[in-house]
Design brief:
The complex is a heterotrimer of chains A (260), B (278) and C (310). Chain A has a single domain (2-235), classed as Rossmann fold. In chain A, 35% of the residues lie in helices and 24% in strands. Chain A contains 9 helices and 10 strands. Chain A has helices spanning 44-52, 75-80, 98-108, 115-125, 142-154, 172-189, 200-206, 224-228, 235-244, and strands at 2-11, 18-28, 33-37, 59-64, 67-68, 81-84, 160-164, 192-197, 209-214, 217-223. In chain A, a hairpin with a 6-residue loop joins β1 and β2. Chain B has 278 residues and is α/β, with parallel strands linked by helices. Chain B is 35% helix and 24% strand. In chain B, the strands form 2 sheets. Chain B has a 6-stranded mixed sheet, sandwiched between helices. Chain C has helices spanning 4-7, 10-17, 25-41, 44-61, 63-66, 100-136, 138-153, 156-167, 171-198, 201-207, 213-249, 261-268, 277-304, 306-309. Classes of the chains: A alpha/beta (260), B alpha/beta (278), C mainly alpha (310).
Chain lengths: 260, 278, 310
């Protein structure tokens, strides 16, 4: 479904040149969920933005459904690939009601005819009732906003959903709800996910395979299964696993006594 | 410790807004010795307002009341502004979430630490400078002399937070309040910062209040944990006994996190019982 | 607006307006409007400002009914010239034996005309130039902003003078001249706002839905810039009225016998010592209306642009 071949993203030139992503490749099957894990500055979000055209593809190729993407992206591309952003407080237009936010993609793609039914259906899909339709973002909680953002991404019926830290701005209990929702939607609608997160546990929960990134480079491609069994070979991945277990007083020694 | 370092009884923080009065903290009581106390809760639980109220940093429309709010026998509610000023930053310090907003952008890190030190200790310039350098070393800066002369924007988030800790600990406080000190940092960096904090607190025998949304982190770092919900402490327990938590909210918070250990699907979600907020 | 049966039970109406779950687009919009009004009405000075502006509008609409005499045709030149304010002539009469009160009332039409027209010309130009320049950036930004700088460099009154000299005196030319010199600050404000908005996630999100650039600018960027611009335009209204009056005073704006306030002050200049009311009454009108717009602008800023208020 999605093929990233030797992707490079470079910002600026000369002394200001920043190699945000250096030679990253991966492949995602139709209906699979693929994770990109790393700390800030690892280039994981940049990969996502390069796929959807918010960051330049400086080298390598991005293939969706076997076809290389064009710059600028076509309308057909946006019908196939949609994105959910990290901060639900920033990703909804503050002066637009939910109704306006959800009808905008339909209007852009000239599908206004059955807008009403589709908006209500989209709301239902993300677990919100019709009473949310005419609310403004400030009348919604963080979790509800993120649900609206997901509904907006899904209303065009895309095949691929790019998820940029979709739960990191949310409380733990709300995170669980959103993760369950994403899990359900993928199964129901046969979606393909690419999830970017700094949280190994979240990625392992949602994705089958994942790529660990650091300083714009791929460190290791591994599976959620391998993470759970502690079979990650790379030292950096190990340190991430360890850090995700919480603070440990004894961990001054090398990571041998990994909590199981 | 016979006498607690900090004694809080029935602490309330109210905000009188146009739309009505909002009670952010509703009767929190706890005692703190020279130990590490964690306060955990989700956004809006009042955990940060509790920390701020202790320091007298409640933002303007807020009103703080308590049956008792005493630090080392000094009543913080009736103390004069002057006493409060010497306590604040002297014997009680606070580390905030994001060093970017807590450090002065137009002063070098070294200058800021010196200033913090001189504000509370009668010390000459040279002594303060030595103290600042020693402090930067204590927070494991690789090259204290270089960091000393840097401006906050020239250092990374982790270094900034360590500089912040250095600044807050230079006066040898008895109590440190850390409000989400590592949430803005990467996991590996935050472990480093926590280790430094842990060592300093243990070495100097300070009391620490660690405020965070991260139950896992707090329980692995602290001795004792207060779980807050809707402005109240719903449960207080020893960190090591977290698994035996009684309150459904604490249990729910524990369970709803995905883990690397096992694969629960769907994740149990929290059914908020309105009775918890009563 | 809401129907009469709802208005009878204010509690019900309020609840309906403040409902966290609006049932229609209209209810959502009215609810927002109501919240804005509540914030606005808490500022008494702003309400006074609004009152003055509304009064100006009413005066302009009903000038025929309100004014007791003709604004143009004078009375008996032998007996009714330069009479002081009295019961028959509330504001006195001028050198042509015309009732000053009637002239001030009719003058409100001209003032309103100037204000509305300048706002209608300058605001869209400024908004468009600013948002396009801020959103597109690059050379478009450079070119548009340099053009703005050029216009900004003209002293308003001098350009207006040159304009009027070229096109001939008259209120329309004065308006065009004022409008042309007043849009650059709006363009700058709109651009500054756009620069903040353009990198936000909600713009990225609509980009990812495949929206065209005009659609993003008009549908998503402009509405967010509009409020701070409205505030600024309202605050500028006082200046615009003064400039229009200034042009009238210099004889380059409205031409006699039009009852333009600035021109009236100019006439009164000759009698300032002995017949003070000839200049003072229209002057007072200019003062009150300018003040009204300023107060209104301040109040609007508190509601629409909370960042700037602090």
């Amino acid at each position: 479904m999605l093929d990233i071949q030797n992707l490079q993203v470079v910002y600026g030139t000369g002394r200001l040149r920043v190699d945000a992503v250096k030679d990253v490749s991966f492949h995602v099957e139709q209906g699979a969920a693929y994770g990109l894990v790393g700390e800030s500055g690892s280039g994981k979000s940049t990969v996502l933005r390069a796929i959807c055209g918010l960051a330049p593809v400086s080298g390598g190729r991005v293939l969706v459904d076997g076809k290389e993407v064009t710059t600028p992206r076509t309308k057909a591309f946006y019908r196939t690939v949609q994105m959910v952003f990290q901060d639900p407080y920033a990703s909804l237009h503050p002066r637009h009601t939910v109704d306006r936010t959800l009808s905008e993609p339909l209007a852009i793609h000239g599908e206004k005819n059955d807008a009403e039914t589709r908006i209500l259906q989209a709301l239902r899909e993300v677990g919100l009732g019709p009473s949310f339709r005419f609310r403004y973002p400030h009348q919604l909680s963080g979790g509800q906003r993120q649900r609206i953002a997901i509904a907006r991404a899904l209303i065009l019926r895309p095949k691929v959903l790019l998820l940029d830290e979709p739960t990191s701005a949310l409380d733990a209990s709300v995170q669980a709800e959103i993760l369950n929702l994403l899990d359900d939607l993928r199964r129901k609608l046969g979606l393909t996910y690419i999830l970017v997160s700094h949280d190994l546990a979240v990625v392992a929960h949602l994705c089958e395979r994942l790529l660990v990134m650091r300083h714009g480079e791929a460190v290791e491609e591994t599976t959620a299964e391998a993470l759970r069994s502690g079979a990650a070979s790379n030292e950096y991945t190990q340190s991430l696993i360890q850090a995700s277990q919480g603070y440990s007083r004894a961990s001054k020694q090398p990571a041998t006594a990994l909590a199981g | 410790m016979t006498k607690p370092l900090l004694d809080v009884e029935d602490l309330r923080v109210r905000f009188h807004l146009r739309t009505g009065t909002v009670e952010a903290v509703r009767g929190v009581s706890f005692q703190l010795g020279r130990e590490r106390l964690g306060i955990v809760g989700e956004s809006g639980s009042g955990k940060s307002q509790t920390g701020r109220a202790i320091l007298g940093l409640t933002p303007p429309p807020g009103e703080v009341t308590a049956k008792r709010l005493a630090f080392d026998g000094i009543d913080l509610l009736t103390a004069s502004n002057r006493t409060l000023r010497t306590l604040r930053g002297g014997r009680i310090s606070m580390v905030m979430q994001d060093p970017k907003y807590s450090l002065n952008p137009v002063m070098t890190i070294g200058e800021q630490i010196i200033e913090a030190y001189q504000a509370h200790a009668k010390a000459g310039r040279n002594e303060a400078r030595d103290k600042a350098l020693a402090m930067l070393e204590a927070v494991k800066m690789r090259d204290p002399g270089r960091v000393f002369a840097l401006y906050p924007h020239e250092v990374s988030g982790g270094m900034g937070q360590r500089a912040m800790i250095a600044m807050m600990l230079v006066t040898d406080p008895d109590l440190l309040i850390a409000d989400e000190p590592t949430s803005a940092l990467d996991v590996t960096v935050s472990m480093e910062v926590l280790r430094i904090l842990d060592e300093l607190v243990t070495e100097r025998g300070m009391g620490l209040i660690f405020i965070s949304h991260d139950l896992k982190l707090v329980s692995s770092f602290c001795d004792r944990v207060l779980v807050m919900y809707a402005g109240r402490v719903v449960e207080e327990l020893e960190a090591k006994n977290l698994r035996e938590a009684q309150h459904p909210y604490t249990q729910g918070l524990m369970r709803c996190l995905p883990t690397l250990v096992d694969d629960v699907r769907p994740l149990p979600t929290l059914n908020r019982d309105p009775a918890w907020a009563l | 607006m809401a129907g009469a049966p709802l208005a009878e039970q204010p509690a019900g109406l309020r609840a309906w307006l403040l409902s966290p779950e609006p049932h229609s687009r209209w209810q959502a919009r009215l609810g927002r409007f109501y919240l804005g009004w509540r914030a606005f009405s808490r500022n008494p000075l702003a309400v006074v400002g609004l009152g003055i502006v509304i009064l100006l509008i009413l005066l302009a609409i009903f000038a025929d009914v309100i004014a007791p005499y003709s604004p143009v045709a004078g009375g008996d030149l032998r007996t009714q010239r330069l009479l002081p304010p009295s019961e028959t002539f509330w504001f006195g009469t001028d050198d042509q034996a015309r009732d000053i009160f009637s002239r001030v009332v009719y003058g409100s039409r001209i003032t309103l005309f100037v204000v509305v027209l300048v706002a209608l010309i300058a605001t869209p130009i400024g908004l468009l130039v600013g948002t396009v320049s801020g959103y597109l950036g690059g050379w478009v930004d450079t070119v548009l902003m340099r053009i703005t700088d050029i216009f900004l460099a003209f002293p308003r009154l001098v350009l207006a003078l040159a304009f009027v000299a070229a096109l001939g005196p008259g209120i329309e030319n004065a308006i065009i001249a004022i409008a042309i010199t007043s849009w650059p600050p709006y363009a700058r404000i709109a651009r500054a706002e756009t620069l903040m908005i353009r990198n936000s996630d909600f713009i990225a999100a609509v980009k990812l839905q495949g929206a065209s650039t005009p659609r993003i600018i008009l549908g998503h960027v402009v509405p967010l810039c509009l409020s701070s611009l409205i505030v600024r335009v309202t605050l500028d209204m006082a200046g615009i009225i003064l400039t229009a009056a200034g042009l009238g005073f210099l004889g380059l704006g409205a031409q006699p016998p039009m009852p333009e306030w600035g021109a009236m002050v100019a006439t009164g200049r000759n009698y300032l010592i002995d017949q003070w009311w000839v200049a003072a009454m229209p002057g007072l009108a200019i003062f009150v209306v300018s003040l009204g717009f300023n107060l209104l602008g301040d109040g609007l800023r508190d509601v629409l642009d909370p960042k700037a208020a602090k």
